[in-house]
Amino acid sequence: MASNVSELTTYDAYLAGEWKKSSSGETIAIQSPYLHDTIGRVQAVTQDEVDQAIKAAHKAQKEWASLSLSERGVFLNRWADELVKNEQDIARSVMKEVGKGFKDSRKEVVRTADLIRYTVQEALHMHGESLRGDGFPGGPQKKLGIVERVPLGVVLAISPFNYPINLAASKIAPALMAGNGVIFKPATQGSISGIKMIEALDRAGLPKGLLSLTTGRGSVIGDYLVEHKGIDMISFTGGSKTGRHLSKQSVMIPLVLELGGKDPAIVCDDADMDVAVKSIMNGAFSYSGQRCTAIKRVLVNEKVADELVNRLKAEVEKLTIGSPEDDSTIVPLISDKSADFVQSLIDDALTKKATLVTGNKRERNLIYPTLLDHVTEDMDVAWIEPFGPVLPIIRVSSDEQAVEMANKSEYGLQASVFSQDIDRALEVAKEVEAGTVQINGRTERGPDHFPFLGVKASGMGVQGIHNSLVSMSRQRVTVMNLK
Ligand code: NAP
Ligand code: G3H
């Protein structure tokens, strides 16, 4: 499966049921964001190999779809078991490849096994329905409609770097349970972890050819995959720019997009400060802010702004900074380019007279947690997603102004509202344009069976276990015309 030349592993791709080297003869070096060294190489798969993988997936899918749900579930449950058995090894891969703390990497593996098992159970408990024709006006209709869910065919699953196991499995598991074949394109930075996850699925005995893992740069094979006639549905998680590009390329193919965000924490003047501070800290800075659902701006009522800023400053200065191997909260960002980008947002804000509360220190791609106060609308950091540990504070004079600022953003993934008056919190929540609003808590995707969606530039369609099963299948209606 993997060859070890001079202690550097070159991983094979998993194509049409076989682990093999790409005929391109080309491999891609994977750099660790904190070791600053190549940790392995993955195959650069060719268009021809994509064709063969899709063909094999269609062939295997027919038989797979004829299995009962519980038979499919057996394979998936075994996959979950394999992931748990190899938790340490997979988590080490995640840590090395994307620089996530070891404890969090382990949590990601366990969360994924739970998600797979829940997906099996959810699919087993999704029932069809029957409808009587005489329910509609206009005379007796002696018809009985039977509505079932059937697979779409072959699903293309494209995942981002920051949850290389969990966000991939949250597409693959429902796609398989719904009876589809899968082509999995992992983020290049994240492919070694993706390979380990698929090795576990292979060990679970998944029928050969049903799923292929096509490693390669999105910029090279991405469009080819997305435009391929053999793809029947695309489930994508990643940046809004890539998502927008995909939606132009994939004409008339069902598409679910989970994209970027600029989640606001709205802090009302009656907020419980202990709750707000704890949630904002955790929401904004875990994994250096490299979460789509990270709190990426604070809209605080000016009456309590000084108190909030002082308390956040004290907490930011306590954050652990350094290596994911030590479970530091603040770790090096995924690339030097990402760090340059975050730095440019800080520089722009400071040039435009934001107040630096703490931070603005950098060692290569390690950006120290940075708190900026008195951020105003003319600053890029007020609107742009940094995907890094920088938190802008925008002071507002009322709930209405907070809502106005929240909704001026092009994004609408999640938002948090902090108030001790539940009616007031609900009133604000109702006005915010976002897929999910959290009251008195941090923005986050889980629990994974909740619907997860973004509006505006944050996405299209809905994920979450039940909704993914729905989006990866279609209804088939059989009508019995009765005498
Ligand atoms: P990205 O650059 O958009 O990449 C996401 C995936 O798309 C990768 O697998 C990438 O492959 C692939 N890709 C790139 N160009 C493509 C093309 N032309 N056709 C098909 N696929 C293509 O995002 P990222 O940097 O990995 O992740 C960070 C972003 O994702 C942030 O904006 C974050 O908010 C967002 N995100 C959103 C959610 C959510 O659920 N809403 C969750 C996590 C992350 P390569 O790696 O080979 O380029
Ligand atoms: O990065 C995007 C993920 O969907 C966020 O998941 O809220 O569990 O960290 P999370």
From TrEMBL:
- Please list the GO terms describing molecular function: lactaldehyde dehydrogenase (NAD+) activity
Question: Which PROSITE patterns does the UniProt record give?
Answer: ALDEHYDE_DEHYDR_CYS, ALDEHYDE_DEHYDR_GLU
Active site feature: E258
Note the InterPro entries from the entry. Ald_DH/histidinol_DH, Ald_DH_C, Ald_DH_CS_CYS, Ald_DH_CS_GLU, Ald_DH_N, Aldehyde_DH_dom, ALDH-related_metabolic_enz
CDD domains from the xrefs? Answer: ALDH_F11_NP-GAPDH (cd07082)
Ranges for domain Aldehyde dehydrogenase come to 19-475
Q: Does the keyword Iron-sulfur apply?
A: no
Q: Which domain of life is it from?
A: Bacteria
Q: Which stretches are transmembrane?
A: none
Q: Give a yes or no for keyword Nucleus in this entry.
A: no
Alphabetical UniProt keywords: NADP, Oxidoreductase
- Family affiliation: Belongs to the aldehyde dehydrogenase family.
Record's protein name:
NADP-dependent glyceraldehyde-3-phosphate dehydrogenase
